[in-house]
Design brief:
- By secondary structure, the chain is α+β, with helices and mostly antiparallel strands.
- It folds into 2 domains: 6-111, 3-Layer(aba) Sandwich (Aminopeptidase), CATH 3.40.630.30; 132-316, Aminopeptidase, CATH 3.40.630.30.
- The chain is 31% helix and 31% strand.
- The protein has 9 helices and 13 strands.
- The chain has helices at 17-28, 36-41, 90-101, 117-122, 139-149, 168-182, 187-194, 239-256, 271-280; strands at residues 6-10, 48-55, 61-70, 73-81, 107-112, 127-138, 158-162, 199-206, 212-221, 228-236, 261-267, 287-294, 307-309.
- Strands 1, 2, 3, 4, 5, 6, 7, 8, 9, 10, 11, 12 and 13 form a 13-stranded mixed beta sheet that branches.
- Helix 5 (139-149) runs antiparallel to helix 8.
- It holds the Pfam family Acetyltransf_1.
- Residues 1-178 form the N-acetyltransferase domain.
- GO terms for molecular function: acyltransferase activity, transferring groups other than amino-acyl groups.
- This is N-acetyltransferase domain-containing protein.
């Protein structure tokens, strides 16, 4: 098959039907890191940049590079061509255009599957960062595992509020909590995520002083009919809260669909990788999801000791 007549577009509007074609293709690829929040909200974020190849005849999707620019980072979340147009040289032209547009003083970051690391390392991103590992579990398995390590009355000292139900004052305190852990002002992303339909997100307060001690969320990923949920994130001040919030999320997922699959992505260097991974390995096998690559050394402000599972998506990058 020869390449069609195509044109290159920069930064298409958020209401363009091309985004819907892109979203379907991402879901078809079964990239479980790229949840419905990422594909649903990325088109609307002020930080989103994109380059597209579309068919001149009918403006249908051929390929794209999509990235987000913030905090002097350009995180390339998607480099994706429709299967029929791969290996035609279109992707390299899109990539070249994207790299030309990224500010020269920014750190470029992307996540690569193991097979593609040599290619990306030899070009734009030679600096190797942490590797992401994932496993899949059922809701009942996760709940049973957490119960093994938590006292029956552990939750009595805490209260839980859904993200969308926070008062104005609690919302502002939550943003401070998130900023303290991530080292980033993620207000725009979190405000959009707060109203996202396919998520369940909780904020945990200490009953002693009403301080925030944990933020945890799960969101649907891949096609909705597949009933897949990604835990993203769990930020907590201690191990027991990390486990307790995982149990809460798993219980909720089980109430939505008993046969749902839960994806747990753990990043090297985080407390979750050290503490949760050995426990999850009792019931599941881990697989490497990808390795973060950078264009130059990057000092991540994230407080790794409070991260049990990261957000781990381009629109809301934490690690």
């Amino acid at each position: 098959m020869s390449a069609p007549e195509w044109e290159m577009l920069d930064d298409i509007p958020s209401n363009s039907p091309i985004w819907k074609q892109w979203q379907k293709l991402v879901n078809d690829e079964n990239w479980t890191s790229d949840c419905s929040a990422t594909t649903g909200l990325t088109p609307t974020l002020s930080t989103t940049r994109s380059v597209w190849a579309v068919d001149k005849k009918d403006s249908s999707y051929i390929g794209c590079v999509v990235w987000n620019e913030y905090d002097s980072i350009a995180l390339i979340g998607f480099y994706l061509l429709a299967p029929a147009y791969r290996k035609m040289g279109i992707g390299s032209k899109l990539w070249k255009r994207a790299i030309e547009r990224i500010p020269k003083d920014y750190t470029i970051a992307l996540r690569s599957v193991p097979a593609m690391i040599p290619r990306y390392s030899s070009q734009t991103t030679p600096v190797k960062g942490p590797t992401l590992h994932y496993c899949t579990v059922k809701a009942s398995e996760a709940v049973e595992l957490c119960n093994k390590f938590l006292p029956a009355d552990f939750e009595s000292g805490y209260s839980t509020t859904k993200l969308e139900d926070l008062s104005h004052e609690e919302w502002e305190e939550f943003l401070k909590f998130d900023r303290k852990i991530t080292g980033k002002d993620r207000r725009e992303w979190l405000a959009a995520y707060r109203s996202h339909e396919h998520k369940f997100a909780i904020v945990v307060f200490s009953k002693n002083d009403h301080s925030i001690v944990c933020y945890a969320s799960t969101v649907m990923t891949s096609h909705l009919h597949q009933h897949r949920y990604k835990i993203a994130p769990i930020y907590a001040i201690d191990d027991s809260l990390g486990l307790c919030s995982l149990r809460t999320l798993a219980n909720w997922i089980g109430s939505q669909y008993s046969g749902a699959t839960i994806y747990c992505h753990l990043m090297e260097g985080t407390r979750g990788f050290e503490f949760l991974k050995p426990k999850l390995e009792q019931i599941a096998n881990f697989t490497i999801s990808g390795t973060t690559l950078f264009s130059k050394p990057y000092n991540n402000p994230l407080d790794l000791s409070k991260v049990y599972l990261p957000n781990n998506s381009s629109g809301h990058y934490d690690i």
